[in-house]
Amino acid sequence: MAKTASKDTAAVPAQDAAGVPLPENYEAAVAELEGLVGRMEGGSLSLEESLSAYRRGAALVAFCQQQLEKVEQQVRVLDGETLKPLPTNAAGTAAGESGDDL
């Protein structure tokens, strides 16, 4: 009887379409995305490099959206599906925005 190797998907980092691992967290993805945008706006990339940067950026944006959706779902669960508006004071501003820290 032949044994089949089972892959543990939790141990394999997520990758973009080119096989490059995605960042470990949202903040790292945003930092990399900002760097890519800066390089692309700088105009120093060749056409091929620009296309590669665009593809990587699209993968990073998708990763960030996925991370934000996960957090939003967690907030919904924690808040019991009822997000409440901030209470306002007589001046029409949120209760913590009056500038009085006391």
Cα(first) to Cα(last) distance is: 73 Å
Mean pLDDT: 81
- What is the global morphology? elongated
CATH superfamily of the domain at 26-78: Exonuclease VII, small subunit
Instruction: Count all strands and give the number.
Output: 0
Residue stretches low in confidence (pLDDT < 50, at least 5 long) are 5-9
- Strand percent estimate: under 5%
Q: Determine the CATH topology of the domain at 26-78.
A: Helix Hairpins
Query: Helix-strand pattern, N to C?
Result: HH
The number of helical elements comes to 2
CATH class of the domain at 26-78: Mainly Alpha
Looking at the overall shape, the CATH architecture of the domain at 26-78 is: Orthogonal Bundle
Radius of gyration: 22 Å
Percent helix range: 40-55%
The main sheet comes to: none
Look at the helices and sheets and give the structural class. Answer: mainly alpha
Topology of helices and strands:
Blueprint (H helix, E strand, L loop, with lengths): L25 H17 L4 H32 L24
Helix pairs in contact: 1-2
Keywords:
102 residues; mainly alpha; Helix Hairpins; 0% strand
Summarize the structure in words.
By secondary structure, this protein is mainly alpha-helical. The protein has a domain of 53 residues: Orthogonal Bundle (Helix Hairpins). Helices cover 48% and strands 0% of the residues. It is built from 2 helices and no strands. The longest helix has 32 residues. It starts with 25 loop residues before the first helix and ends in a 24-residue tail after the last helix. About 5% of the residues have low confidence.
